[in-house]
Amino acid sequence: MELQELSYLLKLYHCRDIGNFRLSRLVPRFASMTALLSAGEEPLQAVGLTPEEVGAITGVADATVEPGVEAALQWLHGPRHHILTWWDEYYPRLLREIPVPPPLLFVKGDPAALSLPQIAIVGSRSASTAGKANACWIAAQLARGGFCICSGMAAGIDSAAHAGALSVNGSTVAVLGTGIDIVYPRRNQSLAERIAESGALVSEFPLGTPPGASHFPQRNRLISGCSVGVLIVEAALRSGSLITARLAVEQNREVFAMPGAITSAGSRGCHRLIKEGAKLVESPEDLLEELGAMLALQQECLTDPDNTGTPSNAGLCGVAMTRKAAAGGMREFALKSLSENEAKILKVIGGEPCHPDTLTQQCGLSVALIHSLLVKLEVDGLVEQVAGRYRRC
């Protein structure tokens, strides 16, 4: 899209008299931004716009440039920064099919990643070690087979899924519930940078938008909307992941769920989904039974290393990565992303359990910071707790 047309769209995007919901319903009706602006009052009123909204659209060329518009255009000059509109070739094809597609997307990374067949893997933020290992393993398997792993970069299952794809140099897309310039949670800063290098960070929210409770369900509709199917790995009965599953059904996407122990409260959401008809998943092959046609299409686009044009054998049937190997890849990824203080803690902790008080004394850090970092290291699979003490995994 030409810069002038993009500027007009950004003006409408930031216009309070229009609103993103109304704009999302309006944009797909026109072949271009020029066509929308030149439609005249009568066609715009015919689609249900009020006189005030029509006036805002017809007067957009002369409207005052909001600070948000200037900030977006300035952000666009950054490396690997893109703003995709409804009319751009890289705008995800599947996303066009959902009821209220976003009129534009902020993308940091490779916009072509959004055109790859995507499988969403989501789940609990407070996931178990086994749940995160399963998410990492299955994401790595699918990524090696050519699928792009889509998730929300939240703590727990989401982060493990992204890390699994990255551990095998696969492609992964993180759909954010904040502005594209804000990393949430903050401890995922290095993860966000890695995702932008091999895939893409995506947001429909204006720059500077902080995390908010209402943003994440809105974000979830894009995770399912971009994907051919959604896999839930660990979810309680009241979980945002179940919202993603519901949205996937409404968008005519496949829903999969990984079972857990019958006594685990963290798996009850998955069990309910399975009872309601979600496909039970124990391995990547369970996904392929439903999505094999999409895999075949992807494999046609893969060529052998000699560039002879023959189909590659890099599909999932040839992948033999174990859960243990994938978990190792996830730990390796976490080790490369250690902060200075996290490295201090790991240096002090050995094979024998170490009490947090000892870490406080030897690392010279506050008790609160030590406990915060230990939680992150435990989530990343680098330490484990044994009777109130910690040791390296």
Give your account of this protein's structure.
With about 400 residues, the chain is of the alpha/beta class. It has helices at about 5-15, 20-25, 35, 40-45, 50-60, 65-75, 130-145, 155-165, 190-200, 215-225, 240-250, 270-275, 285-300, 325-335, 340-350, 355-365, 365-380, and strands at about 80-85, 105-110, 120-125, 150, 170-175, 200-205, 230-235, 255-260, 280, 385, 390. The strands form two sheets. It has a nine-stranded mixed β-sheet with strand order 1-2-6-5-4-3-7-8-9, sandwiched between helices. The chain has a two-stranded antiparallel ribbon with strand order 10-11. Helix 10 (about 215-225) crosses helix 11 (about 240-250). The radius of gyration is 23 Å and the shape is globular. The model is unreliable at about 300-325 (pLDDT under 50).
Short structural description:
The chain has 393 residues and is an alpha/beta fold.
Measured as a percent range, the helix fraction is 40-55%
Q: In what order do the strands lie side by side in the largest sheet? A: 1-2-6-5-4-3-7-8-9
Strand content: 5-15%
User: What structural class is derived from the secondary structure elements?
Assistant: alpha/beta
* Silhouette: globular
* Helical stretch tally: 17
Order of helices and strands: HHHHHHEEEHEHEHEHEHEHEHHHHHEE
C-alpha end-to-end distance: 50 Å
> What integer value in Å does the Rg equal?
23 Å
Main sheet properties:
9 strands, mixed
Would you report the number of β strands? 11
The unreliable regions are 301-326
| Average of the residue pLDDT scores | 84
